[in-house]
Amino acid sequence: MLSKLCPCFPCRRRRAEEHSSERGDHLLSKTTMRNKTDGVKQNCFLSMFSFCWTPKAPAATDGPPPTEQEEPPKEIPTYEQILQAKLYCEAGRLLIEREERLFGEIQDPEAATGHQEEVTELEVCRRELLVLVLETLRLSLKPVEVGGAAALVSAVKAVEQEEAQDRLWGQRGRTPPAWRPCGWKELHDSTLRDLVEERMDSPSTVPPTNQVGQSSVQADVCAMGRQLKEDLLQVASVVRSCYPPEHNIGHLYVKAYHRTFSARLRMIADFGLEDKDCTFLLLWVNENYPQELQKTELAGEMDVAALGKLLPEELLKPLEDQFLSGQQEELTTFVGRILEDAKDKWNKGEEPSREDGFFVSPVSYDIIQLINDKVTSAEKVVGDLQKARTITRQLNDLMQRFKIFQNDVIKQNKTSSRPVVKAHLGCIQQFRDFLNMKRHLFTEEVWDDCLHVLTDMKLSAQEYLLKPVHEVLKPEYRKLGTRDWLNKNLFISLLHGLEEELQGLQGSIGSCHQELLRKLHQEVTVEYVRRLLKGAKLKDEGQQVKACNTVRDNAESLHELFVKMGSEDVWLKDILTKIAEVLRLQDLPAIQMQVASLGTDYPDLSKNHVLALLKLKTNLSNADRRSVTDVLSDIGGSGGREAAPTFFSEVRV
Fold it and tell me: Residue 41: which pLDDT band, with cuts at 50, 70 and 90?
């Protein structure tokens, strides 16, 4: 126990009054301090606390007196020394002991009226202690000024101690002292919330040099963000260890900073913002702030999602609309410029550049990069892909402009038109790949509409490039329908002309050129079958066998030529081979089986096609032909081969 009190009551009372007025007397209870005019004698404070400061006399014993070698009694610190040492928990315990002496051992609090002077003095001491505890809490994020974590630990224990005493009085069923319940826990929490607001209002962090030139809005938000980050780091590394785990002090600080940051951003968002500041604010709300919280050491103690957005929906939506509208306008403007630049070059007669021998255009690459960057960045800014991809709603109109440009190129048919169209085939393929691989960047409507436009553009480009080939080969096609079509030399002439024309088709990128060749391969085969079905009749088995061999040879030659040029559509050769087999067969059941096989593999084979083929075999009766065509009815609805390519629907008979 302590031996004495250091300062007298009047001095200490004046000191407490100064502390109360300077350090936030508004936080304390309604208890008033004693009037200065009270004539308290200088030694009253010592007498009132003599029960705990004056050590008890040692008990008498029968043994020998202590020897000179015994250690002298240790000096017990005074109450003032305890406060100066920031041992707030110990100081609070002494005051609680005095409170118990004055109020705890009596049934009627009115009985303490005889000790009113001591009660008043105790109240003053409690106020002084509270001021020091609250001051320590206010400096808890500045450990150097606090004097180390030990002072904060002691202050926290003092608060817990007072809370425990409040609960004890609540259980006694008697009238407590005027200061009970004292509510130090509520004062603790409100003090920390006030502290957070003060630090966010006046951030002390130094901005990085790379942020020079920011707007005032951006500078303010960044300063608050840096302060939040530094303070939460201090809470995680130092302050948290000063509290018992059940206090979850980290969560209290996070909620306080979140609430304060949100309030400051609301005030900023209430004013009209320029597009740059609008984007910056949304990015902070939806990406930067959540990421910063997740990076802190306190992330495991809180549910970031449960904190909610920094801004409410009624403030976010106008900002999002402003941002998305601006992004959509930028996308439309930039894509328009890309298309206009390509059109200007074509009007000047410039051919597209070549890469590895292929004509290429920057249109698709530039637009794809622009769309990908815009939507991806917009998703980060607004924090929602569904909202971000609305900026592509005008993409279908932009693709239509691209289509109109290509139609003009084809219609005018300038010297540079074919190279431009070959380059466009590469653009179309790149656009299709992008739409399919990045489908999530587009709404379903935009995705579907754009693919339709690109399909039309591809077919139009292929038709433009292949039409001259068919015009050159048209005389050779006509020979296939004559009586001399079994002459091998006729087809060789067709192959030579076709090979020459194939050279002129080169210039598109690999996959597009291969697709172009496949289309030509199919069109030539279609024309061959069409001419065959309208050709001269085969009167006997000998002519039919010769026709079978000729068709097989032609199919093989055609296949070899296109394979050499890049097409590998084996199924076209298979069609000609099966047609040739029908010509060779004489047994009716065998013919029926062959036609059934052909119809199963190619469901678009119609009765008209079969009849035209059978009419070449003049030795078949009409009844035989009907029995063969009936086979198609039997296999109808079987579904045919899965994903079977269309062929006979292109053959007009």
Answer: very low
503: tokens are: 């050279």
Q: How far apart are CA 511 and CA 425, in angstroms?
A: 10
479 burial class (0-12, 13-18, 19+ CB within 10 angstroms)?
A: middle
Long-range contacts of 108-113 (CB under 8 A, 24+ apart): 109/174, 109/175, 109/176, 109/177
Element (H, E) at 131: helix 116-138
Identical fold for domains 316-461 and 480-650, yes or no, is: yes
Provide the token pair at 471.
């015009």
- How do the domains of the chain map onto residue ranges? 9-55+76-174, 203-308, 316-461, 480-650
Q: Is 441 exposed, middle or buried (0-12, 13-18, 19+ CB in 10 A)?
A: buried
Distance from C-alpha of 32 to C-alpha of 119, rounded to nearest angstrom? 12
* Main-chain dihedrals φ then ψ at residue 425, nearest 5 degrees: -60, -40
Report pLDDT for 209: 61
Cα–Cα distance, 626 to 123 (Å, whole number): 118
CATH 1.20.1080.10 fits 316-461, yes or no: no
Longest dimension (CA), the chain: 152
Peptide bond connecting 64 to the previous residue in cis, omega within 30 degrees of 0: no
Rounded to 5°, angle at Cα 135 from 228 and 34 = 150
Q: Which CATH superfamily is domain 480-650 in?
A: Exocyst complex component Sec6, C-terminal domain (1.10.357.70)
Residue 523: pLDDT over 50: yes
Answer whether 529's CB lies under 8 Å from 575's CB.
Answer: yes
Assess whether pLDDT exceeds 90 at residue 134.
yes
What number is the average pLDDT over the span 219-245?
Answer: 91
In whole angstroms, give the CA distance from residue 184 to residue 126. Answer: 11
